[in-house]
Amino acid sequence: MDGRGGGAEQHPAPATIRITSPTGRWILLTTVLGSSMALLDSTVVNVALPGIGRDLDADLTALQWTVNAYMVTLAGLILLGGALGDRFGRRRIFVLGVVWFAGASLLCGLAPTPGVLVAARALQGIGGALLTPGSLALIQASFHPDDRGRAVGLWSGFGGIGAAVGPFVGGWLVDGPGWRWVFLLNVPLALLCVPVAVRHVPESGDSRAHGRFDVLGAGLGALALALVTYALIEARQQSPAVVAAAVAGLAAAVAFGYVERRRPDPMMPLGIFSSRQFTAVNLVTLCVYAAFGGFFFLAVLQLQVVVGYSALAAGTALLPTTVLMLLLSARSGELADRIGPRLPLTVGPLLCAAGMLLMLRAGPGASYAADVLPALLVLGLGMVTLVAPLTATVLGSVDTARAGLASGINNAAARAAGLLAVAALPLLAGMGEEAYRQPGAFDAAFARAMVWCAAVLVLGAAVAFATVRRPGPGCRRPECRTHGAVTAPPLEGERGS
Question: Membrane spanning segments where (predicted)?
Answer without folding.
Answer: 26-49, 69-86, 93-112, 118-139, 151-173, 179-201, 213-233, 239-259, 280-301, 307-330, 342-360, 372-396, 408-429, 449-468
